[in-house]
Amino acid sequence: MKTLPERLLFPNARISKERLEKAIHGKTIVITGASYGIGEELAMLFSGYNVHLILIARTEEKLQALANSIKANKSKCIIIAADLYQESEVDRVIEKLKSLPGGIDIFISNAGKSITRPLADSLNRYHDFTRTNSLNYLAPVKLLLAATPLLKANKGQIINISAMNVLLLPAPEWAAYQASKTAFDQWFRSNLAEWRVMGILAKTIYLPLVRTRMIAPNENYKNYPAMPPQQAAIRIARLLCSSSTCSKPWWAIFPQTGSFFGRYIWEKWSYYHLRKRNGDSI
């Protein structure tokens, strides 16, 4: 059940079945990170319509169970079990996508890795940065470079599922995640006009905290307001159906304005907060 802050921050969104049917009827839709959370909810939201879903994730058993549910809803589905941390696996996915007889109509870039770790604990963990960068930046870049000709042929769409924090000031202990997500966001936005010239609509949704298993290991998030993944999926579907190229929470303007004007205050507060938390004298 939603808490009062969650009801205020994440009011229930709805989407017309007729509107969604019009947008996705007969389409081939690729979803990365499809086995859990937002990706799973999106796949189930689209099932029941005349669509061909291409689901990509690491866990083959979970993907197969999801595919069975989708097919029971009378939609077509293909699963591709692949570890997108590995470039060779990305290449294998690309070959499968290129072999689809009808090409691709919609590409939803959802796979991602979240990590929070203090700098002092990261000194011997360079792999945190390479793995996060691989999944949040390099893998989707390589997939979309390969998918662009397919999407151009079908005048398709790309949806980038991003995070609110890429629009805000950098936060302590989030260097690996925030840098990789921001890098992909900048790459994606740099290509918007060129994709548009090709007839491809590219859109980004900046989501707040979503209550998925990705945030479960962080104890701090247990009492934080978070959006249900079903609501995230509906908002993504609404963006897919709209002419807008961007979607953000209604309240995003407030932290964005604070980030624009408050860098000095934020950096001073972060410093004193960390000193106090770590038990150091100031």
Features:
Rossmann fold; 11 helices; 49% helix; 282 residues; alpha/beta
Sum this structure up briefly.
This protein is an alpha/beta fold and 282 residues long. The protein has helices at 4-9, 17-24, 37-46, 60-72, 87-98, 126-154, 175-190, 192-197, 229-241, 253-261, 263-277, and strands at 28-32, 52-57, 76-81, 106-109, 157-163, 201-207, 246-247. Strands 3-2-1-4-5-6-7 form a 7-stranded parallel β-sheet, with helices on both faces.
How does this model look, in words?
It is a single chain. The chain has 282 residues and is an alpha/beta fold. The chain folds into 2 domains: 4-251, NAD(P)-binding Rossmann-like Domain (Rossmann fold, 3-Layer(aba) Sandwich), CATH 3.40.50.720; 256-282, no CATH class. The protein is 49% helix and 13% strand. It is built from 11 helices and 7 strands. It has helices at residues 4-9, 17-24, 37-46, 60-72, 87-98, 126-154, 175-190, 192-197, 229-241, 253-261, 263-277; strands at 28-32, 52-57, 76-81, 106-109, 157-163, 201-207, 246-247. The protein has a 7-stranded parallel β-sheet, sandwiched between helices. It is globular. The termini are far apart.
